[in-house]
């Protein structure tokens, strides 16, 4: 599909329907169970909890069936043996985030993975003790960083540095981020940054800011909670030290789904790196020797602690199959067009400020709308009109048309709902 032009965007609703008619991904919608109360409802909150892939139910039921029939023998004898179950995720995860298979692992939750990887990559020593994060990061990230630094015996108020947008602005200027990294210089140990800022929807240039951190001798990690399954990522080529993400938002793997992590291969091969250890990080060839000494495998698996929760991983297998069927490149192309249409339809509407960057490379499948007056009332009116979205303080409503299952006609109708309730 080609890029939308200004002339395209001035067309009426028939234009949106025509885009759906020629959409090569239109068939993907039928592969999801959309939680709609009424036929005309719109689910624009997949950035908070993605809908269930229809295949997830069958996969979970198959594992329940194998458990009931096989018991412990299912570790080796199930249709998808549990011992190597997580290995099914390597290739699709690698394709999704632009990594090599030995650089990715599905494990734990996002916040747990943050702690595990900060153990490895935040190594305060001498002058190099600072940890840089965004001000207004998702609270769990802030709690993790502050508590982790404190657990190292350091004062978070002194050693955690927060970068914020300039006064009167909603988004962080990327030149300001690079300048802050340069200013911290040899005091910076780790920059922990968002792939997409959850409140504003701003997307960051991972390669650029990773280079900036490496230039001063620091390491750079990324929280991709709102980027995985949303942006076309290239983590290996971007040279990121590590990244973490959840799987229940754009990855549609269910509430509390198993999260993911990326560790660049230069670190994967360094078995001397400090880390928390568990037996699932051992070489699988020697795992059942039950040896006392932990020898990490040269794979991102070396950061995993325990065998994967099979019933929780099964929906992720189903979801990643849908991403492979669609391809992240095609999804991103559609997403750019959908968000452009939504922005055009809402641009200049009285009482609404779009705080998400206008440039397509600087945002994902999300527009954040700031309502300076009666934001909560307007949000509730959107819900009553059948537009499922979410609300974040102060006065921000997030709309997230997801290309896997949303349509251009829904984008058009969502804009009409917003315009009608302002």
Structure notes:
It is built from 16 helices and 15 strands. The chain has helices at 6-9, 13-21, 54-70, 74-77, 90-97, 110-121, 139-151, 156-159, 174-184, 206-215, 235-238, 265-268, 310-326, 328-346, 375-384, 408-421, and strands spanning 32-33, 42-43, 52-53, 104-106, 130-134, 160-163, 188-194, 219-223, 242-245, 260-263, 353-354, 367-370, 387-388, 390-392, 396-399. The relative contact order is 0.17. The mean pLDDT is 94.
The count of helical stretches stands at 16
Using the alpha-carbon principal axes, give the shape: globular
**Backbone structural class:** alpha/beta
What distance separates the N and C termini?
33 Å
Strand content: 5-15%
CATH topology value of the largest domain: Aspartate Aminotransferase, domain 2
For the biggest sheet, the summary is: 7 strands, mixed
Q: Rg from C-alpha positions?
A: 22 Å
**CATH homologous superfamily label of the largest domain:** Type I PLP-dependent aspartate aminotransferase-like (Major domain)
- Give the CATH class of the largest domain: Alpha Beta
Average pLDDT, to the nearest integer? 94
Poorly predicted residue ranges? none
Query: How are strands sequenced across the largest beta sheet?
Result: 4-10-9-8-7-5-6
The second-level CATH architecture of the largest domain is 3-Layer(aba) Sandwich
- How many domains make up the 3D coordinates? 2
């Amino acid at each position: 599909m080609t890029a939308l032009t200004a002339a395209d965007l001035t067309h009426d609703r028939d234009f949106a329907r025509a885009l759906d008619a020629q959409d090569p991904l239109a068939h993907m919608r039928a592969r999801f169970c959309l939680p709609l109360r009424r036929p005309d409802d719109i689910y624009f909150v997949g950035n908070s909890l993605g809908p269930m892939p229809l295949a997830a139910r069958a996969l979970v039921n198959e594992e329940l069936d194998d458990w009931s029939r096989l018991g412990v023998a299912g570790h080796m004898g199930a249709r998808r043996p549990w011992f190597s179950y997580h290995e099914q995720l390597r290739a699709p995860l690698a394709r999704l985030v632009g990594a090599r298979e030995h650089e990715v692992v599905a494990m734990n939750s996002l916040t747990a993975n943050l702690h595990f990887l900060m153990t490895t990559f935040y190594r305060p020593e001498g002058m190099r003790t600072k940890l840089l994060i965004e001000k207004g990061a998702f609270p769990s990230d802030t709690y993790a960083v502050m508590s982790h630094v404190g657990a190292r015996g350091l004062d978070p108020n002194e050693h955690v540095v927060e970068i914020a947008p300039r006064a009167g602005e909603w988004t962080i200027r990327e030149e300001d981020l690079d300048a802050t990294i340069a200013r911290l210089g040899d005091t910076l140990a780790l920059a922990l940054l968002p792939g997409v800022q959850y409140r504003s929807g701003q997307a960051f240039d991972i390669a650029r800011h990773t280079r900036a951190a490496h230039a001063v001798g620091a390491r750079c990690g990324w929280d991709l909670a709102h980027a995985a399954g949303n942006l076309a990522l290239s983590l290996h080529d971007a040279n990121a030290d590590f990244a973490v993400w959840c799987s229940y938002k754009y990855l549609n793997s269910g509430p509390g789904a198993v999260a993911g992590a990326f560790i660049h291969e230069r670190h994967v091969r360094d078995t001397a790196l400090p880390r928390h250890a568990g037996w699932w990080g051992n070489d699988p060839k020697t795992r059942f020797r039950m040896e006392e000494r932990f020898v990490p495998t040269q794979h991102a698996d070396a950061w995993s602690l325990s065998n994967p929760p099979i019933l929780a991983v099964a929906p992720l297998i189903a979801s990643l199959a849908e991403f492979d069927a669609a391809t992240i490149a095609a999804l991103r192309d559609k997403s750019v067009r959908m968000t452009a249409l939504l922005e055009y339809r809402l641009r200049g509407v009285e009482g609404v400020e779009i705080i998400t960057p206008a440039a397509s490379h600087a945002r994902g499948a999300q527009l954040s709308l700031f309502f300076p007056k009666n934001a909560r009332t307007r949000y509730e009116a959107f819900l009553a009109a059948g537009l499922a979205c979410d609300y974040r303080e102060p006065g921000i409503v997030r709309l997230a048309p997801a290309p896997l299952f949303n349509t251009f006609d829904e984008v058009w109708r969502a804009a009409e709902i917003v315009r009608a309730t302002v």
